[in-house]
Amino acid sequence: MHPTNRSSRILQPVKLWFVYLSLFVALGLEYIPTGRTPGLPDWVALVLAFWCVREPLAIGMGAGFAFGLLMDVGLGAAMGQHALAYVVLAYLANALARRVLWFPAWQQALHVLPLLLLAQAIMVLVRLLAGAEFPGWAYFLSSLGSALLWTPLSFLLLLPQYQPDERDDNRPI
Amino acid sequence: MPLVGHQPPPIFRRGPAPLARLFVFVALCLALLVADLRFRYLEVLRNALSVVTYPLQMAASTPADVVRNATRYFGTLVDVQLENADLRRLQLDAGERLLRFEQLEQENLHLRELLQMSERVQTKSIAADILYNAPDPFARKVILDRGTQQGVEAGLAVVDANGVIGQVTRVHPVQSEVTLLTDRNQSIPVSVVRNGVRGVLYGVGRGMLEMRHVLAEVDIQPGDRLVTSGLDGIFVPGLPVATVTRVDRDQDAFARIECEPLAAIERSVQVLVIGRAAYPPPPPPPEPAGGR
């Protein structure tokens, strides 16, 4: 059962170091050289959107800006391109946080999909204004791939918070 | 603030309002973008931040290295035999050309001495493999497996067996980034082999090139070969670049010249990084205005 605001399950409080660790792991996944395969998810945008929805008080535009800059440096993109997209993404995800968490996981993914598409559209706009070539419509498949991963990813990222309060009460022996 | 709900009560202070923070961050990003794309000021910041990203990048590229080495290792015997036969044939061909080339080079040196011309440009070259396409989908760039440690510098030309494929634009310790000729922001000064007409070749996207700044009445025909002119002081002169495919003189004062690259720009794997061993002397200072 996916924990939403409707469910009665109470999670452990989030650990901030785990949030940043997951963002850095996403950054590492992003750096894997995959050429121009369309439809690969934007891991950092996805994880950032997840934490912005889940923990709007802890993660927001500052993290979006910092990880956007790291993406720009690592991918050789224009400085500020990913930062701008992620700042807007984080703002909107923070704003949506109270509403989205009332829905089941697949509907949460539908809420996040337009935000991810908007982030990509911002990047395309910025680069086209700077005189680059349009990368083709397949570029936007990446957001669809990200949205499909929302449910498994939210299970994975909430795993540490599923742990019971007192381990000894739940041991088989 | 309808988007974020109610204003927080004063006991839960959260700093500036989200919308204000958004505007600050967006303004900061736009400033960064302008400084980087328009003025190229941010290489220092990029280098500083790459201290963080570089170990992650190295770790992330390891699985790709493993896959590439595995495919090479498990390549079938038949493929290797075919490739071997091909290479032997090529080597015979090249050997014969090399014999003639040595003789011609001697002759050229001799003639240049007789005419008291300066020596031809000395070059240095570094062999490299193309590792993968750069991840930025908006630019046509590739990553090479040689960097500053092997002597690669920004600005050097990169060629494959048939011609120029691009220019080194950014150098890391053991890798470097090459902007291909077909990138929209890349240009290269060229001249026509047949008559020495000079121009500048620009990438126009879709794998095509266009030669600009050539007047409409200048003698250029489809089929002409273009080589680097070396006038920029960076490229080695005489490297083959492209052939002219179409010339359109109807538009205005300048001809519209479409060209096709000679090299397999988007497909080559083994390349050579070529540069001048020594840079040309700086141009003489302008004469003082009151001199004559």
UniProtKB/TrEMBL annotation, chain A:
It is found in: Cell membrane. GO terms for cellular component: plasma membrane. Belongs to the MreD family. It comes from the Bacteria. It comes from Thauera phenylacetica B4P. Keywords: Cell membrane, Cell shape, Membrane, Transmembrane, Transmembrane helix. Pfam families: MreD. GO terms for biological process: regulation of cell shape. Coiled coil: none annotated. The chain crosses the membrane at residues 14-32, 73-97, 109-130, 136-159. This is Rod shape-determining protein MreD. The keyword Cell inner membrane does not apply. The keyword Electron transport does not apply. It is a multi-pass membrane protein.
TrEMBL record, chain B:
The keyword Secreted does not apply. The keyword Metal-binding does not apply. GO terms for cellular component: plasma membrane. It holds the Pfam family MreC. Keywords: Cell shape, Membrane, Transmembrane, Transmembrane helix. Coiled coil: none annotated. The chain crosses the membrane at residues 20-39. InterPro entries: Cell/Rod_1, Cell/Rod_MreC_2, MreC, MreC_beta-barrel_core. GO terms for biological process: regulation of cell shape. Residues 130-274 form the Rod shape-determining protein MreC beta-barrel core domain. Involved in formation and maintenance of cell shape. Belongs to the MreC family. PANTHER family: CELL SHAPE-DETERMINING PROTEIN MREC (PTHR34138:SF1). This is Cell shape-determining protein MreC. It comes from Thauera phenylacetica B4P. The lineage of its organism: Bacteria, Pseudomonadati, Pseudomonadota, Betaproteobacteria, Rhodocyclales.
